[in-house]
Amino acid sequence: MPPCPADRPILGSEAAAELWLSLAPGGWPLPWQALPAGTALVGGAVRDGLLGRLGARPDLDLVVGVEAIALCRQLAERFGGHAVVLDQERSIARLVIRGWTVDLARQVGDSLEDDLRRRDFRLNALALPLAAETALVDPTGGLGDLRRRQVVAVSEANLLDDPLRLLRGVRLASQLDFSLEESTLAWIHQHHGRLREVAPERVLGELEKLAASPLGHRGLALAGTTGLLQPWTSAAPAAHLESLSRERAFACGLTQEEANDALPLARLAALCDGAALDHLRSSRKLQGRCGRLRRWRQRLGASARQAAAALGAMGEAERLALHRQLEGELPALALQLPPDLGQVWMARWRDPSDPLFHPRSPLDGRRLQHGLGLAASPQLGALIDHLTLERAFGRLGGEAGALAAAQRWLVRQTSAGLKVPRRD
């Protein structure tokens, strides 16, 4: 759901009651009454509830006045689920239960207000105590920020307590379609180099969230101009990122679900080469996906017109290689095409029987070995590649046609003086 318009009063006489109703505590995986007195819901669930953005299973972040790790283990034993220690020193734990995530943290300071004043941004420093006839707790002015649609740091020192917050501010602005307040943006510019102090895995996690946000293309461009990404990412023109929008995805024929997968991948690939992703300690799978996409984007050129021209000039073997290598990532490449061509590609990609967009040999190695008496060898692999190409461009007619094409290929190999190993 979109954020509340700026003229909508977020805090009314019954704001806490309305928020409580939207949170639907009756559907939580454990009864809130089982939590210790003084427990408060904080952070994203409170913010998103006020903005009308709650999902079916919001992440529940709770502040408790007791040791959170011990409490989490007790709750897991009582209600099921799995307890995970997130921070032993600060007593932070996570209860994973029936598809929900419940984070519990020991209160920092002498009061809930003290705890909230130590947080990153004022719109995250909101709390709803879990008690009857409760009221929202807002010691820093986060409600006003929600009205103004701004991301405002609680303080410069709080940002530097965990420099990942510098990047998180850009992500929140992108995710919520809010602006970054002037002083907050200046602090991000000033201290961008501190982000390199953060564990690479945490930086990557925040980058992935930013890339997946609706306005992630703008957020990543801003992160680049502030210098936050200098240690890890390669330069990417702002215009290139600007084209990786949801509007562009829909114009190229992608569905909502397809765009949700393709856009984050395309945005990350625009910024990060293999070395950068390795430095960020990403998975080999993500490195492979981004690497393949980067190579083919570079091959097609910078503009949609250049991409269409490059595709038109490709030979069959190269076109087949494109679809073989990018079978799973093709929607991310379709964003680079002219919209009408992108729509054609997406329609073909959705058809699992399309022989070019989902290239397969009509006969596998075992069938060729038995049908033609061939032995396993590099030549057998070359024959499979040949049949895959012939099928991709519509030159085979069923299994019989494939066997005949294989026989002709074998004859040509023999005529050229090349030996094809046979089974004994």
Describe this structure in words.
This protein has 424 residues and is of the alpha/beta class. The chain has 4 domains: 15-148, Beta Polymerase, domain 2, CATH 3.30.460.10; 149-232, Hydrophobic Seed Protein, CATH 1.10.110.30; 234-354; 365-415, no CATH class. Helix content is 52%, strand content 8%. The protein contains 22 helices and 8 strands. It has a 6-stranded mixed sheet. It has a two-stranded parallel ribbon with strand order 7-8. Strand 4 (92-97) and strand 5 form a beta hairpin. Helix 9 (200-212) crosses helix 10 (216-225). The radius of gyration is 28 Å and the shape is elongated. The model is unreliable at 1-13 (pLDDT under 50).
Give a quick set of tags describing it.
424 residues, Beta Polymerase, domain 2, Hydrophobic Seed Protein, 4 domains, two-stranded parallel ribbon, 22 helices, disordered N terminus
